[in-house]
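Subgroup meeting minutes
Present: P.N., E.W., G.H.
Scribe: E.W.

1. P.N. recapped why we're keeping a running log of single-chain structure predictions: easier to compare across weeks, and new members can see raw inputs and outputs side by side.
2. G.H. added today's entry (523 aa).
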Amino acid sequence: MRTIEIYDTTLRDGAQSEDVSFSVEDKLRITEKLDELGVQYIEGGYPGSNPRDIEYFKKVAKCRLAQAKIVAFGSTHRPKKKASRDETLKALLDTGTPVVTIFGKTWDFHVREALKVPLKENLDIIHNSVAYLRKHTDKVFFDAEHFFDGYRHNPEYALKCLEAAQDAGADCLVLCDTNGGCTPTVIRDVVRQVKKSCTAPLGIHVHNDSDCAVANSIVSVEEGITQVQGTINGLGERCGNANLISIIPNIQLKLGMKCLTHEQLMKLRDVSRFVTEIANLRHFKRQPYTGDSAFAHKAGMHVSAIRKSPETYEHIRPDLVGNSQRILISDLAGRANILRKAEEVGIKLESDSAQLQDIITRLKELESQGFQFEGAEASFELLMKKALGLHKRFFDLVGFRVIIEKRKEGEEPLSEATIMVKVSGHIEHTAATGRGPVNALDNALRKALEKFYPLLRDVKLHDYKVRVLTAGKGTTAQVRVLVESGDKDSRWGTVGVSENIIEASYQALVDSIEYKLLKEELP
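Output recorded in log:
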């Protein structure tokens, strides 16, 4: 079985993504997570470019990593300077990493226009840089920048650049599609030609500007590449880098080659979500293999089939990559969806029962009004329990009022909510302020109920979304509010729909509270 080396560059290339900025502590935490995943190489940064990366290399040297080797990244030495006296190469060696990666120009256009040196001098720069570093480190990888563009314009010279690095002792020649514009056919053909000229191990580093980065990486592996570079979740400049979250399982589960252990592969979803959280980005629901929607089923026919055999609509077992199967509830749902969802939450429901038909009918009525339960599974569970007589009322609303007051131009408006509820015959009347009317109403409702149900203090509101449902009606449009709440153990979604955004929000907030109380099985 062939083994493919995984080279992660999330901490450098990934950090160049728009809206992403990793602190030193962020980078250290991600390093530990990548080591747990089992990647062979972690590119920590460019020590010659900023103080943050210098600090990272100092701190990561004290980390006890089980497998991964830390890599320092930089460029070849500058023209008119000797390798032994070049500040960039010195900075790389000062990191003390066992592996160093340097990039060099392989497109003659860049050599003439960017470096402004003769083509022969660039070959000497590549050779001398690799040879010097090779004397002082365990391994040196050479990133052939813009290689595929260079090969298209001047294949003879591009190959000479690789040969210069190979002759100097480079441990891996990494072919870079730096502009990200190549297609798999081009990548395949060029890799085949390179293999005829070079004997050193080859790597691939591609960007995703043509949305082909994963495919380009896979065809490279099929053609004999032994090292794949990429980032977690495809983070990177412009359209991003090759996405290791897709590449790793494709190599292991589709090509039958090895890059991680089975146990490590099962951590893939966890690592994907961890990096997303550290980067302060939203999780991509439709990400292959690890996204929430990767193994989510909505159509009734599909659900009926996977209940008999998951392989009918799932290309792998979700648990192989740490994911799980989900059944979505919508107006497309059939009996199989409802039965499967009932099983998941421990509700006994017979396939020929009148209650099942009642649930289906009620579901389709509500969705025709604008309700959506795909992101509000807690609200759907409450719907089922109401139909089956398993729902409990913990309080009754007597009434609420929300006041918004703006006292001065340039100042934030003041929001205050007053609410009255009845709990076991007792009337509780309270008020609260908030950062906006919905937050004020949420605070007032909790304040009124926490006296009777202290465990509600554990519930936090994590996300709040509003969607306009009826176009063309302006401020009288019907809206749907989706609320995500959670406690220390889990998260759940609830929904409300109304032409009044406060009323829709109240519906979703009440469902969230009732779900928590029912979850705890309070009497």
